[in-house]
């Protein structure tokens, strides 16, 4: 299961404001654009929450016979902040869709906490975030319905997409959502990349997702997990620790024995939590385009 990569030049965290230089950069293979989705069809229902902003990298080439493969990137503002022309030009036939928020920041922290955190049980009402009681949590079920329903329909309305080659990527809380989707709706995407998933947020809940999994042994779900070996929770006063997060590794050891799941683990040497976001993109783009 273990696949360790060599040290690489990890893109730095640029702070909270998204620069989105890729929107103005010349890319020989793609046209890059962004727009806000209509709230009345794509939500969210909370009128005070930011609307959904889509970032799209569209191939200039004609679609493949069966349509373009597509990679969906959660936290689209931050993900597209790390995209470069060289990364896109290496995958000329791949549609890249960043699903973000209508904000100037890299992360809409309160809204992503709600959208990406799983409910305590299917159909359960939202609850306060156990780590930040001023934030709501448990909206992943509703967000997944929006993502695979009206959001996907809007994104793909002008494109010819191969439905058998949709991939979902998420980092941190987005990685937790990606893991949640792989366990509960494995057929929603053809492949998943959960990067530094926030298993620590509720370890019992994550373990419950594994127990209640809906994997199909005859149709293997492909899950790629990426972790840094120098990750530490923001604000922690504990001494720096080498090695990937132990609670995540313990869960992954359980996943290795599951029927219907094809696991791949990548460790990014000397990568802190935020650095795994950018470090994972080259490999993820290649997987999605393969």
From TrEMBL:
SUPFAM superfamilies: alpha/beta-Hydrolases
Chain intervals with Basic and acidic residues compositional bias: 128-137
Region described as Disordered: 118-137, 226-247
Residue runs in coiled coils: none
The keyword Nucleus appears for this protein: no
Keywords: Hydrolase
An MF annotation (GO) of this entry: hydrolase activity, acting on ester bonds
Family the entry assigns: Belongs to the esterase D family.
Name of the protein: Esterase
Organism, scientific name: Salipiger marinus
